[in-house]
């Protein structure tokens, strides 16, 4: 691998280096591959290590790189599309759902959740916990709150907890006729429990997607999904399949 010297440019040196590094990621590295150490990279591009660190930090913010504890800096997988504008409605757990059930408990939800569901604040609801993984790495965690009235026949299910219980709750939920759903998205910071599940530090930026599922005259379920902001992008309607290339001169295909 030869040495690439940077030419004098009007933009900050680290910003130009970021562009050069991005092109190298596209052409020389694969997803999950560990980058050479900082000394080797700085020597290759003829820059100070401080400049290199600035470029690497920017690429991490843009989701091109991931710094994994005990591993090093690796090439990040493509961003996961978070569809917020689809006209096709489906219950959680329906065919093609990318989420994996983790657990299910019956507990009193936060007061704000009870208010949205229209349940008494002291009334327990089914709380299904699910996760979403891309290229072997966690990218999102979800809490799905389902009132007992939405799954009235669940008493016949033997599984007290765990993934089996979660799947049973979702199967019962799908017996209802889904009238519609609406979503809200906001930028937030990872709480301690979310950060641990998503392999991030507390306070890391996340996207919080809240989805209300309606059936009959009320809210049948409420989903609060927390996505790693560095691994996800918002999509609208049919744009979910659009692949965004990172090179500065490339267009979406």
Give a verbal description of the structure.
The chain is built from six helices and ten strands. It is α+β, with helices and mostly antiparallel strands. It has a six-stranded antiparallel sheet. A two-stranded antiparallel sheet has the order 1-2. Strands 3-10 form a two-stranded parallel ribbon. Strand 1 and strand 2 form a beta hairpin. Helix 1 packs across helix 3 and helix 2 crosses helix 3. The chain is elongated, with a radius of gyration of 22 Å. It starts with 12 loop residues before the first helix and ends in an 18-residue tail after the last strand. The relative contact order is 0.15.
In short:
The protein is of the alpha+beta class and 253 residues long. The chain has 6 helices and 10 strands.
Q: How many strands, what sense, and barrel or not for the largest sheet?
A: 6 strands, antiparallel
- Using only C-alpha atoms, the radius of gyration works out to 22 Å
How many helical elements? 6
For the largest beta sheet, what order do the strands appear in spatially? 4-5-6-9-8-7
Beta content: 25-35%
Termini distance? 30 Å
- Which spans of ≥5 residues are poorly predicted at pLDDT below 50? 239-253
Strand and helix order:
HHHEEEEHEEHEHEEE
